[in-house]
Write a structure and sequence with these properties.
It contains eleven helices and eight strands. It has a single domain, classed as Aldolase class I (TIM Barrel, Alpha-Beta Barrel). By secondary structure, the protein is α/β, with parallel strands linked by helices.
Length: 295
């Protein structure tokens, strides 16, 4: 198992339900709600959290808010758990700045995504992560998610990046690339590929569904003989949490359980009636609608 833990929750960022918010004056971060949610996901089986990843709506946070959420996670992390800071950017200088600051704050590791939109070529990707690695003495988890970035990092490139000091793992969110990579710990980047990731030698998962069913996912990781059955039972939930753009579904589910307000920053919007019904059905099937459900 990775020193960072086998199960990391890509934790959402709760926003406060306050009046007077607009697209230009969005709801502030609900700091108390974040601390409570952080505690909850650890109680539900996670070894740590990834703060300010895609699920944490990092793209709509100012740098001060972004680093503030990371600090909140670090300052309030339960004993024996870890905090991975999501501090990627498509601007190398910005990624290095955020990486340096997260390191200073005490993050246990860095999650750094492939530069998005400007879509650098192979040499540019290598140059980018070489500079990011210089900005920290913490382990770096590469984040390969071409669905969002527009650029894939194939496994031969990942193996080359693994030669850079400090780059130690990959969150693999491209199913087509799902295979062991020399020099990197492999984390499932999608809940529906956790089983396959473990079967090819992965160390665990960076999960969204673990907000709700962390102990079940932990059993998948720790008990090979149970994996197939647990995966089959959770598959409808995994599908429901993908009914629309993340993090709308997981925030809806947590709101249904009474753990946070279903509030977002544009352009992410709440689930519509159909999407909410899909999520409700999946939660009900697993007896997860009670806010006090078994963790």
């Amino acid at each position: 198992m990775s020193d960072l833990g086998a199960l990391l929750t890509a934790i959402v960022t709760p926003f406060a339900d306050v009046s007077g918010t607009t697209s230009r004056k969005p709801a502030p971060v609900d700091e108390e709600g974040f601390v409570k949610l952080h505690k909850l996901v650890i109680e539900r089986g996670s070894d740590g959290v990834v703060a300010c990843g895609t699920t944490g709506e990092a793209s709509t946070l100012s740098d001060d808010e972004h680093l503030g959420v990371i600090k909140l996670a670090i300052d309030n992390k339960p004993a024996g758990t870890t905090v991975v800071a999501g501090v990627g950017s498509n601007d190398t200088a910005h990624a290095c700045h955020l990486t340096e600051r997260a390191t200073e704050l005490g993050a246990d590791a860095i999650l750094s995504v492939t530069p998005y939109y400007n879509r650098p070529n192979r040499r540019g990707i290598i140059a980018h992560f070489t500079e990011v690695a210089k900005a920290t003495d913490k382990p770096i988890i590469l984040y390969n998610i071409p669905f969002r970035t527009g650029t894939d990092m194939p496994n031969d490139l990942l193996a080359e990046l693994a030669q850079i000091d400090g780059i130690s793992a990959v969150k693999q969110s491209n199913d087509a690339n799902l295979a062991a990579v020399d020099g990197l710990d492999l984390y499932a980047g999608n809940d529906d590929t956790i089983l396959r990731t473990l079967e090819v030698g992965g160390v665990g998962a960076i999960s969204v569904a673990s907000h709700l069913v962390g102990h079940d996912i932990k059993r998948m990781i720790e008990s090979p003989e149970e994996r197939t059955d647990v995966h089959a039972r959770l598959s409808p939930l995994f599908a429901a949490l993908g009914v629309t753009t993340n993090p709308s579904p997981i925030k809806a589910a947590l709101s249904m359980q009474g753990h946070l307000s279903d509030i977002f920053r544009l352009p992410i919007v709440p689930c519509d009636e159909h999407e909410a019904s899909v999520i409700t059905s999946a939660l009900s099937a697993l007896d997860l609608l009670d806010a006090g459900v078994r963790a």
